[in-house]
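Let us practice reading a record.
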Amino acid sequence: MDKWETLERKEKKGDILLKMIAISGEMPANLPEKIVGSKSYTASLITDLKKKGYLLLRYREGLRGYVLGKKGKNYLLQDYRQEVGSYLIGASETNHVKSELEKRLRLHRMSQIWGYFFMHGNLIFATEKPKIFTQDCYGKTSLGTYYGSQELKQGTDQVKGSRACGLYMKNEEVFVVYNSMGNLMKWSKKMETAMRCWVERNLLKTGITWQGKAILFGDSMKLLRKILLSSGGVKQELFQTDDVYEQYYFVPQDKEGAYLQIELLTDKERSHAFSTFLETILDEVERNEFPIYAGLKKGIPVYFVYELELRKLQMVKQDMERRGRGMAVCFDYQQELLKDYYGEGVEIMVLDCEKVKQYLLAMEV
């Protein structure tokens, strides 16, 4: 590769990174490497953008993040106004990035989710996706579409205080997305109920009936235990599993295989085929409409818990304790936490993520 090809590559990667910082407001300092895909190349790219005055490093109160410099904003508004203009014009929080720690952390939460969906091939930029809350954005698609909080709220103050990061749509499935990072996030049931109802109302306007689902991201599986055991804290202002949404699905950001959960959640046919395949290990399948356990194996109830739906995980624990035994079927990166949560007496059947991916890919042939 000659130097001109290298420069062309760097410019393209640099533009993508700048655009993502624009829609983030402030990007966590460890995120560019994940987006670009190479530690050494990212270091070179960041150095170049900083020299041009396109990018600035903000380091305060122990929190490191990248923000756009004035030249970076001008460059994006000149070349990519349609994609990021709404984030760099007016009073939006991404245009006037505050220095307060709490407000910066909010932008970091948002940025992590922008990055997560981008890295997994979803549509995030305005010019590549349909307008939110239209029939065009709700249908059978090979690519998912993510809308950030500014797009989701569309200038309304009705749900301004919600902790939601955005909305994710794929294959007629819709999820309100939250990011708790490494700790229990602040949670106002009244405000999040308003968010859920507001999303539901907007979907109904386009003829879409919604089941009320949410994806709750965290930095790692360690957070899941805190969530499952949470009682809301002393002041009842922290997240705990409630009835705002019918389902809450937990997804750890640090496990590459965890995106498999989202793929199964957004593909009903493959999800059904996969669970049907797993039922072949059972001696007896439970056919009740809403079963807690999938069936029996040698008289032991077997629970499929790999989706990490919070309410189901808690119900399974109660059912296991009542019965005094049980087998939990989960993915490899989930086993340690679930073994600890359910206790030593519970059997764990581990599914290899890579083998499951191969199985699902084979179904498409």
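A brief commentary: The chain has a mean pLDDT of 91.
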